[in-house]
Design a protein that fits this description.
Helix content: 10-25%
Strand content: 25-35%
Number of strands: 27
Radius of gyration: 24 Å
Shape: globular
Number of domains: 4
Strand order of the largest sheet: 1-3-4-7-6-5
Structural class: alpha+beta
Length: 471
């Protein structure tokens, strides 16, 4: 391995240095480097699958299109749009992406946005065999999902320790960009711990410059041992094409979610009940802190586990279970791996003194589906009071706001065509005031008799009416 690392360094220098003449030893190193990438491909490609998800029964060969759902335009007002943007009216009800086998008996790890609400999922293995897959479970908070095919003795991939990854290490992406199966691209880990991209609720992305294009979503980002370093999820693009920035969910997070879904069919997370903010230099100076390490508690939710344990606004969290934390990101990530009922020792700085608190985590509240089938407009909603405080704050809503938040909008549904988006809060439905889920359900009772649905919604600082044509 040390010989390979040396060759990789020499290869990089030989390829990119203007002062280097490629000599015999350099050629030898180039060949050895090339063989290393080839070995990754040989090990991993048989375990990478192509996923074809159909909606509303559409299976026509002529209706196929690339899944552009992992494309995020960081340079326009569409940045807040999630995976499907605003498709053209004639865009087919079809999504294509990638996945990887994680067991010999057919479990496949992929992205939630590829298979969510699909009525039919076809998985194509590298040998060309097609299988119908069923959804085992999904986790929208991380955009991960587990599906399964009925087969045995399949090749599968193991997980790397994503915490051990270092910036500058080689990374190999394998998937089906533009429906071209078994495509391999090479790059490096260009950053770790990317957050605030507003792609998912829980963000701790690995950034890579290995080419990721539409259709790569759900496929693996691999290390040189052909182990999963991450699951490719998003790309930065102005036109849905590769621009040198791709993002992958870290392997440790993906493995944790996968194991919970396979064992329990769902992911249950512990709930602490605080809103955090990072420390900056000015804040550290004002608080007379020696360093910027830690996370400041900006808000403590009423009747939350944190409040019951004695945590207060202004406390600076510096450790949990005697493990030092560097920043808000590292703390949030670690908390996301804990479950309801777990006891956590939280160490804080309060007025310059260390204090310890034992917190028993509650259960994070999941979204509720409100008459999804009978309403059939393609939305999932939740009482805003059941939404975690940090999510409500992200959408710039006050604690006093009453209503029902849209948590998901189905691709190509009439709701999406009308302009409904995740994060919108329904205040009225057909002129009836909506304070909670019960009010929402009551307003739906005569919905089948109407051709139009009139919704008064609030989206961040804007309140407006939206008309949904049902027929």
């Amino acid at each position: 391995m040390s010989r390979l690392i040396t060759c990789l360094m020499l290869t990089t220098f030989a390829l990119f240095s203007p002062f280097s003449d490629v000599k015999g030893d350099d050629i030898s190193c180039l060949k050895e480097t090339s063989k290393a990438f080839s070995q990754v491909g040989k090990k991993a490609i048989p375990a990478v699958v192509f996923i074809n998800a159909h909606y509303n029964g559409s299976k026509s060969e002529t209706s196929k299109s690339e899944d552009s759902s992992e494309s995020f335009n960081f340079f326009s007002d569409e940045f807040l749009k999630k995976f499907f943007g605003s498709p053209e009216k004639d865009q087919p009800q079809y999504a294509a992406g990638s996945g990887c086998l994680v067991s010999k008996n057919g479990y496949i790890l992929t992205n939630n946005h590829i298979i969510k609400d699909a009525e039919n999922i076809i998985v194509t293995l590298n040998d060309g065999k097609d299988y119908t897959a069923k959804i085992i479970g999904t986790d929208p908070k991380t955009d991960l999902a587990i599906i399964k095919i009925e087969a045995n003795n399949l090749p599968f991939l193991e997980f790397a320790n994503s915490e051990a990854l270092e910036i500058g290490e080689w990374a190999v992406a394998i998937g089906a960009p533009f429906q071209l199966q078994a495509s391999l691209t090479v790059g490096v880990i260009s950053a770790k711990g990317r957050q605030n991209l507003r792609i998912t609720d829980l963000e701790d992305f690995i950034q890579t410059d290995a080419a990721i294009n539409p259709g790569n979503s759900g496929g693996p980002l691999l290390d040189l041992d052909a182990k999963i370093a991450g699951i490719n999820t998003a790309l930065v693009s102005q036109a849905g094409r590769y621009m040198g920035l791709g993002f992958a969910i870290p392997a440790n997070m993906a493995k944790h979610v996968m194991e919970q879904i396979i064992d329990n069919g769902t992911v249950k997370r512990g709930f602490l009940g605080i809103i955090l903010q990072p420390l900056d230099k000015e804040m550290a100076d004002a608080l007379d802190l020696a360093s910027l390490e830690g996370a400041l508690i900006a808000e403590v939710s009423k009747k939350s586990p944190a409040q019951k344990a004695g945590l207060k606004q202004g406390d600076i969290i510096i450790a949990y279970n005697d493990i030092h934390i560097k920043n808000m990101r590292s703390f949030r990530k670690e908390m996301s791996l804990l479950g309801p009922g777990d006891k956590v020792k939280i160490t804080v700085l309060r007025n310059g003194k260390k204090k310890n608190f034992m917190v028993t985590l509650g259960e994070s509240k999941d979204s509720h589906v409100a008459h999804k089938q009978s309403l059939d407009i393609g939305i999932e909603v939740s009482d805003i009071k059941d939404i975690e405080p940090q999510i409500v704050k992200k959408w710039q809503y006050s604690d006093a706001l009453e209503g029902v938040m849209i948590t998901s909008v189905k691709y190509h549904s009439i709701a999406e065509k009308a302009g409904l988006k995740p994060g919108m809060v329904t205040l009225k439905l057909n002129h009836k005031k909506v304070k909670n889920i019960n009010d929402f359900n009551e307003a739906l009772k005569d919905i089948d008799k109407k051709r139009y649905i009139l919704m008064l919604v609030k989206y961040q600082n804007v309140t407006k009416f939206i008309t949904i044509k049902r027929k």
